[in-house]
Design goal:
Largest sheet: none
Radius of gyration: 18 Å
Shape: elongated
Strand content: under 5%
Helix content: 55-70%
Structural class: mainly alpha
Number of strands: 0
Number of helices: 2
Length: 73
């Protein structure tokens, strides 16, 4: 997975946060407080998951005990 993985660009993260804020704001404005709560929790969980994945993959790339790609018979 880490060979194919690329970090999310800053512009994508900003877009993601802005759309999450827009969804929550619209739900609150419409009086759908339960939906706004669900959207808020979803946004927080998504941000936490992305952060953990980025950290885990970065740690795996930088770990000294990582095996080399060369296979020796």
């Amino acid at each position: 997975m880490e060979k194919k993985y690329t970090h999310q660009p800053l512009m994508w993260r900003i877009y993601d946060v802005v759309t999450d804020i827009a969804y929550v704001s619209f739900a609150v404005y419409s009086g759908w407080f339960v939906l706004a709560t669900v959207f808020s929790l979803q946004g927080l969980c998504k941000a936490q998951f992305n952060s953990e994945q980025e950290k885990r993959i970065t740690d795996e790339k930088n770990s000294p005990d990582k095996e080399s790609d060369c296979v020796t018979p």
